[in-house]
Amino acid sequence: MPRARTLFLLSVLCFAGGVGRAAAEVTTDQPGAVLVFPKVIVDGTRDTIIQVSNASGARIRLRCFYTALDSNGESDVWLTVDFNIALTRLQPTVWVASTGRPVMPPGDRPAELEPGPVPPLAEGFLGELRCAAVNDAEQPVSRNVLTGSATIVDRSTHELRRYAAVAIQGLPKNNGDNTLLLNNVEYSTCPRVLLLNHFFTGALDPVLETPVATNITFVPCSVDYEANSPGTASLQFDVVNEFEQRLSASLPVRCFADLPLTDIDSRADASRSIFNVAIQGTLVGQTRIRPVPDGDSDHGHGVLAVAEEFHDPPRAGAAINLQLIPGNLQGDVIVLPNIF
Amino acid sequence: MRTMKGIPWRMSLVGMIAGAILVVMAPGAQAQLTGTCSDENNCRIGTDRPASIVIYPRLVTDTSSGVDTVVTLVNAGERRSIDALCFYVNTNGHCSNNNAICNPSESPTGCVTGATCVPGWIETDFRLTLTKRQPISWRLSEGAQFLPCDANNPEPESCRTDDQGNPIFNSGSIPPAPEDPFIGELKCIQVDEADVPVEFNELMGTATIVSTGTAPGDIDVNKTNAIGIQAIPGRLDENEILCLGGEPNDDCPNGAEYVGCPQTLIMDHYFDNALVRGEEEVTSRLTLVPCSQNFQNSSANLATRTTIQFLVYNEFEQRFSTSMRIACFEDRQISDIDTRFGDSDDSASIFNVGVQGTVSGQSRIRAVSVGDEGRGVLGQITEFYDCGLDRPCTTASNLKTQGRRQFGDEIILR
Fold first, then answer.
1. What is the pLDDT of residue A63?
2. Prediction pTM value
3. Which residue among A155, A193, A296, B120 is the one 20 to 30 A from A4 at the CA level?
4. Nearest-CA neighbor of B206 among B50, B365, B101?
């Protein structure tokens, strides 16, 4: 019986170990240990400017990963390219996605203050950027010191859309291996619910009296760079209009999804979508987005997202960070590739 | 004799179940499951959480120039309906000679020679009810005389009914901005039917500033989330003084009722006149609003001046610093923080690329407490790009926050 009693106590402690843990969250307002830029685009007319800053008084290194979903004609291919940069105390840095940062620092810059090379992205890139704070040995660390933002520039319309990178905060019990557990032990869990306040597609902007359209980009929280395996998620959408009427939809996401709201439930005919003003009858709505947990014991299926709102599309737009309800019921995992 | 086989694993299973129950019942875990916060450790100020106080730091309308703001306020909660008490704060300046609207943070201010631009702080309050999960939006210059589910709405729509089949109604109305042009902030506080603040953290919102240029189809949009201040459950003492952070004192016997304002704001920005992508010149405006506000005695807001300290880091890790004093609202181009208003000497500002030598910077903003007054501030940044049109292209973003202030702030309601 003593052995049984010990097992009982250990089991209680293991499960209850998460209680009362210091608060760490996924946030767009505070520095974190992992930054996620859900949408980075380089094409004929659009480019993305990435800003990253070190909010602490000590140097920090970052392992960063561009990823995109591409198709080779037969099947989807998950492309990834990674790079390392270092930021000195309180140092900001910026680069344009299409040109990156040079391998050799410009002549007028001290080499020790140069963050490091960032590869340029080829035209046609549509994906995400994810950066994790690491130490000089490239082991992940839970130092919540990174802030970032991305500005999508549209040369054809002269539009700029800026959003804050989503920061995943780290917690003290980080074992420093390449498996980042987003389980409120090593890092905070991904959101349980994402909230998007938006105009319904086709609703007339009250000022311009032009139609409004919204685009949304999802990236799974879980990703395995070592196995080159993207994350997946199944999303439930709960849409409430100004009359408190509710409709719902769902969407599977693999690796990356960037689509108009109306494509979530009605790709063939946007006017029949629950995100369309013709169906909803009001200007604005509140959409709750919930990743559905499953029995997967390896990792969860949380998502992060950013939205873009276009007034008189595609002319005038703004990027929007979603509100986040913390506490995904299933922990996510980010697996970094091993160094060899 | 009973064997011991099987008992240990059963005890483990029982232990796991007991642990899971502990997890679910613990306040921190409850907060995680419901999405609300339970104590000071997990309640936050931010733009990505529903809250009990939402602040829109920068609302503008100038219909003659084609600028207006679309404001959205949302009930994020599962409750049947919630009430909000909102305050427009009109920070227009007025010329001392003729009361014409002017801008004290610009040069020229808009007043004739000899007249001064007197800063203003005038509040207009209104109340409304939002039904469960209801979003509403309105144009700042027009307000909303009738809400969607208002029983008095001359164009009634089929709003929902409650569980007993009774129709659910909005109540209240939203006035337009008190002046046009207007610049100021909006603050909404979740209250009950008697206008007593409540702790349910169910409000969120956005502000979309829409600008039209002179050419047909020339439009610009920027959008930000409202800043939310979460209430700490169990702390509200239901009086008219809302205590944001801080320790117990005479005004705040329970100590902090809401989360305290941040110790530091982090502004990641381009230096003024930097060329983004080598071709688009950018300038930025910083908007700051104080955490403390007195809606009982409006003149007290103008009389209270807060010192703001800035540390500015460029990409070479070089640091410059400056400070300024603000009253109740400040909306200023960053190059005017340490130089005269106007662009005549902007090139000498530490916020200018001409001084800094790099495109981007990180500025850390700290409001200086006075005695035991927190004097915290909140804010946002708006970027103006020279995009080759007859008006700038803009983006707006919220500032990052870091740390908590030692002393608290107070919002005093009427």
1. 94
2. 0.84
3. A296
4. B50
